[in-house]
Design a protein that fits this description.
Elements (H helix, E strand, L loop, with lengths): L1 H27 L4 H25 L3 H17 L6 H29 L2 H16 L1 H4 L3 H18 L17 H24 L1 H7 L5 H20 L6 H15 L6 H25 L6 H25 L9 H18 L4 H19 L2 H4 L2 H11 L16 H5 L5 H6 L17 H4 L2 H9 L1 H4 L16 H12 L4 H10 L14 H8 L1 H4 L34 H11 L14 H18 L3
């Protein structure tokens, strides 16, 4: 059981921090796309180096424990980092620690347990990360949970180093297995990235109400995988996993079949993930810890780090899972199965059938591969948004402080048609993608006055009945995302003018009821009428946790900036049009809620 807990801790740490929290922390800090890729590339390079160093110098439980301890420390510090250099340092340390821990763990598992327990551990790791309280946690909160998992891995790690059997079997030639798992990780990473970043796909498969189901499916199928591997099913399991993920990837694109995809996808992922962890020790022909470590280093470097990075990198701008990706991965899986199992015609037939389905689906779904942002721009024009909203920040004016950086006139005039706007009845939308989350934009389109009391904007709920609303949200989100760093920098420089006695009429209580209560609740407990619209619920302003505005130096200023400009990377919007006096009044009201409860 300790071995299963160690697997769960290491795998859970990798998922919740390296795959989720760290990326969101980067984006919340305003790191640009290019720098984000550089930081994540540094983590991957360090992970590969750490894995090979472990294989070369030798594996021991002590080294794995030290690596997890270092990972826990770096992860706990990650939410406190703000600059690029700091994030690169965290990436290098955690990447290297993960490389040591994953390779060492995989090589030592045959000394600790039977292969069925690997499935249990993998399932526990996935299930834990899908528990709503974990999955919906803020990025800093997820980082600290990840640090706790790393510490749990240190405690749970067994000490034995001698394998309980003479050596594993070689199911496929080793490099065939590397190709097989690279195809699976590549397809999984690409599909999951798209699902998590396309609002309709995510809500239909990973919405808050579905998280417990996903956790249960992950745990159950990973346990099935462990038992299947223990009974000699290693030849069939990877291909079965591909079929499940492939069918899910094709079904998730269509709203009518999306609920089925929500069952198939976690099932397929758990099957191949359990096999991936177990493969170096049991199924790659290794006869001891050191040979298994070398196989793990190569497998995780190519299939894990390389496959995952390339899968995500190739789909960053897509809104639907391309059937050609499904078919491409299927070709590699089929090639391995055909060359390694010429007599397994049923498996080959199943793989080829799904590949053909993916190819045929791609032939008839070209519109799905077009840019959602481009379609959204056409909707913006056709719905007449230009009549009330400008897309032109006046250079050198107060606009830049409120709405973000101005664009060069040459860039503005390149648009077809030009969308400067006729007049500004509502806010300027040039950089709205840097100032509002997709969830907030969607909720505002559906019921504007619920989000902004007294707003003259009509409801556009009907646009979401056929997907046009999601395209419009994507257009607005992407149009200003490049200005995120600039908006954050301006927010970090802004200070409200201290309120005078004459400003006392700016009632914080009335402002809170108008601007904040809909999400945070009338008493500030995060239970407002609109709280259920967001995947991560609004902050509890009475009891916390106060991730962004904890007690300390310049607390009032940090609260003021959060009110005025929102918090990038969350659903918290800015209130850019409030006067300094109104912001100051709201700050006092918000901090009074904490004082009444004894909070920081």
């Amino acid at each position: 059981m300790r071995a299963a807990l160690a697997v769960a801790a290491v795998y859970g740490y990798f998922l919740i921090f390296a795959q989720f929290s760290f990326v969101e922390l980067l984006r919340a800090a305003g790191i640009g796309v290019d720098l984000e890729k550089a930081v994540l590339g540094a983590m991957a390079a360090a992970g590969i180096a750490g894995g090979f160093l472990t294989a070369w110098r030798g594996v021991s439980p002590v080294r794995v424990r030290v690596a997890l301890g270092v990972a826990a420390l770096a992860t706990a510090l990650a939410p406190l980092v703000s600059g690029t250099a700091g994030f690169i340092a965290i990436a290098l340390v955690t990447g290297a620690a993960l490389g040591v821990a994953t390779v060492g763990l995989s090589a030592l598992l045959p000394a600790w347990c039977g292969v069925a327990w690997v499935g249990v551990g993998t399932g526990l790791g996935y299930a834990f990360c899908n528990v709503p309280a974990v999955f919906l946690q803020t990025p800093p909160g997820q980082a600290w949970i990840g640090a706790g998992l790393a510490v749990a891995g240190v405690v749970a790690m067994p000490t034995e180093t001698r394998w309980k059997f003479s050596g594993g079997t070689k199911v496929f030639p080793f490099w065939s297995a590397v190709v097989l798992f690279t195809a699976l990780v590549w397809m999984d990473s690409a599909a999951f990235f798209i699902i998590q970043h396309a609002g309709d796909l995510k809500s239909g498969t990973w919405g808050e109400s579905l998280l417990w189901r996903n956790a249960a499916v992950h745990l159950a199928l990973a346990c099935v995988a462990g038992c299947w591997l223990a009974r000699g099913g290693a030849k069939y399991l990877p291909a079965t996993a591909w079929v499940l993920i492939a069918v899910a990837a094709l079904m998730v694109n269509d709203g009518s079949t999306r609920p089925i995809a929500g069952w198939f996808y976690p099932a397929g992922v758990s099957l191949y993930s359990a096999a991936l962890v177990a493969w170096p020790g049991w199924f790659a022909g290794a006869n001891g810890v050191k040979p298994a470590a070398w196989r793990a280093a190569w497998l995780f470097a190519i299939a894990g780090w390389f496959g995952s990075a390339n899968g995500i990198g190739m789909v960053e701008t897509l809104e639907r899972v391309p059937p050609v990706f499904v078919a491409g991965a299927g070709v590699l899986v089929a090639a391995v199965m055909i060359l390694s199992n010429l007599g397994r015609w049923r498996v080959v037939f199943a793989v080829v059938a799904v590949v053909l389905a993916g190819w045929m689906g791609g032939k008839g779904s070209e519109p799905l591969l077009s840019s959602a942002a481009e379609r959204g721009r056409q909707i913006y024009v056709s719905e007449g948004c230009i009549h009330c909203h400008s897309q032109y920040v006046r250079p050198g004016s107060a606009d830049e402080q409120i709405w973000g950086p101005a664009r060069k006139m040459e860039e503005v005039l390149k648009d077809e048609p030009v969308l400067i706007g006729n007049r500004r009845q509502g806010p300027d939308l040039t950089n709205v993608g840097a100032r509002r989350s997709e969830a907030w934009l969607r909720a505002h389109f559906i019921d504007p006055r619920a989000m902004v009391p007294g707003s003259p904007m009509p409801s556009y709920a009907h646009l979401f009945e056929d997907g046009r609303g999601d395209d419009l949200v994507r257009y607005l989100k992407e149009s200003g995302v490049g200005a995120t760093a600039n908006v954050m920098a301006r927010a970090a420089e802004w200070k409200p003018v201290p309120s005078s006695v004459q400003d006392a009429r700016a009632s914080g209580k009335a402002l809170f009821a108008t601007c904040c209560a809909a999400c945070h609740g009338a008493e500030g407990y995060g239970d407002g009428l609109l709280a259920g619209l967001f995947i991560r619920p609004p902050a509890n302003l009475v009891q916390g946790p106060f991730i962004w505005t904890a007690a300390g130096s310049e607390q009032e200023l940090r609260v003021a900036r959060a009110i005025k400009f929102g918090i990038v990377g969350t659903d918290m919007p800015g209130h850019e049009v409030l006067t300094d006096a109104q912001v100051n009044a709201l700050v006092k009201e918000v901090l009074k809620l904490r004082t009444c409860s004894g909070g920081p």
